[in-house]
Amino acid sequence: REVMWKLIFSFLEPLREHLTFTQVSQLLFMVLALAAKAPEDPVVELAGAGPVQAPMFDRQELVDEDKLDAALALLSAHVDLDKPTAPAICLDSLDDDFDMCPSGISSANDTRTAHQALFEKAFPYILSCADDSFQVFRSVLYLTPMAILTAPEHVQSILDRLSAFCAKTASSVTRSAGQALCVHLSLRCADCLQSGSSVEISMFMWNLFQIMGRTQLDGIKQVQHLSYMVLVSGLSSWRRFFLHPRVDPRTALFPPRDCKGSKPLEWLAALVSDQELYKRFHAALEHAETATTGRDKDGFVVRKAKQLREEAEHRAGVTRVLAASVLLLVLRRMLQDGRAIPWSKASGPGSSAGLFRAASSLFRPAEPTMDPPFVKPTPAYMVLYASEILRVLLHLDAGPACIPRPFCLLDDAARAIHHLPSPARAPQLPLVLDADQREALVMDFVGALIDLNLTLPPDPHAKHAPANLDGAESGDIALGWEDGGADACAQESSAGNTTVQSAASGSAVPGEVLRVLSQSPECLGWNAALNMYLLGVDLTVVCRDGFQSGLIKWRRRKEQARVLIAADLVERAKRTLSSSGGS
Q1: What is the pLDDT of residues 135-150, one digit of tens each?
Q2: Lowest CB count within 10 Å: 75, 142, 488, 554, which one?
Q3: Using CA atoms, how far apart are residues 350 and 355, in angstroms rounded to an integer?
Q4: Would you call 6 helix, strand, or coil by DSSP?
Q5: CB of 27 within 8 A of CB of 129?
Q6: Could you write out the DSSP letters of every residue in 356-403?
Q7: Given CA atoms 443, 445, 448, 452 in this order, what sign does their dihedral have?
Q8: What is the pTM of this model?
Q9: CA dist., res. 206 & res. 209, Å (int)
Q10: What is the pLDDT of residues 236-270, one digit of tens each?
């Protein structure tokens, strides 16, 4: 690399005036290739591997930036610029946004436009050469102004190549890096949109997230392509992206022109509702183990089989909790500003009805589709997140001031059930349910409460199960939010802080996820029960006839446990709502 840089500079400056533009284009491609990082070694995702590292989408993966700056300046000098030269390019920040913009794209702060004329003329040649190497393609996209990337003659080719690099057939390292590159470009789009709206930029960002969602969905369908690293690094990038103060999640999740399905929301909902994800990870770990060692899975010793089982459950737990956290974060960010959410009009992916069905499906066991032919009960931590998602969805029209505050884990959750707060506004179902569907929802809800294996209704004097708060300075464990609440997060967003409550240094898994999963089963169970009771107060309003018909059936069947819990919940909800003048 050092020799090549010396060779380029040895003739670039003295012969600059004699170069044809074809030669300039060829030299530009060589310069961008030299600035690209070397490919990373492939990774085999065996049980016991180290933690997934957080992807660095917020900085550019380039080397020899000083030499790159000098070479770009020399090459740009060859082009006859019609406008005054812009400031020299800065490669270390995403805060340099967009300046020159044909086709009406606003890019007032983009210092990449210092070399826009050069890239505009040379880009077709560069794009034709950057076929096979992801690293070179990445460096090209890093340095090309957004107005060129979104030009009609280039945008589809760029999206197709990004889709190929993120596809399940690529290596897990390339897939992770491809996802990070898409988020990097999306953040550039968000920065550009700060200077004014642009349909081209909005469509480009939406297409980037469609690519990420679609390729992630494809990757979880077959165990040989299921990658824990790709899933977690992608979710981590999304979480940090949606926490950015300049990002409006609507632009990434919903198309600017019409209401098509949202692949990002479909992927998040699929992870949250996949009750067999632990089976998929187990099969993927077995596949990696047999491919690496050459042994058949029947030859695994007992200790190895136990390790694979525990690792699969851990990976499934981290992935699903992280997906639920991202989904909650997205919903709260969109509801925070009081603007309407452009939900898909259909009931499938991208609609509030689809999210409601996905979250409520965790209240009943799924039908098995893989061996072994049974599905484990929904763990308490997923019941906790499912009830939180449903509470938010029941208050979509409540207004920013009336959205339920993020649930924080309590060390006395059992006692808190005796002091339930009343919702600020009456809840509303985000979909139409007939009487039978409302009854089924109530019956699944009460069944999920029973499956927590707690003594319900709780004894107000029962010994509490303390939540492990990881020290005095760790703060509350808030679900799907940063640092314990909307007020704190608003202050953090205004300061541009997107790394609060992070995990261990360098880890892609945020602190919220690790801390929730580190709680004792009893603590998680009681906190899940508390959040279910909070949800139950809302359900007694929107599914009142479901509780009435359910109680009749349970009494007829002499299912006393369900009768006791449902009747107690209805009575508590009645007292809670009447004390605040509710319905």
Answers
A1: 889 888 988 888 899 9
A2: 488
A3: 8
A4: helix
A5: no
A6: HHHHHGGGSPPPP-SSSS--PPPPHHHHHHHHHHHHHHTTTTS-GGGS
A7: negative
A8: 0.86
A9: 5
A10: 999 999 999 999 999 999 987 665 678 999 999 99
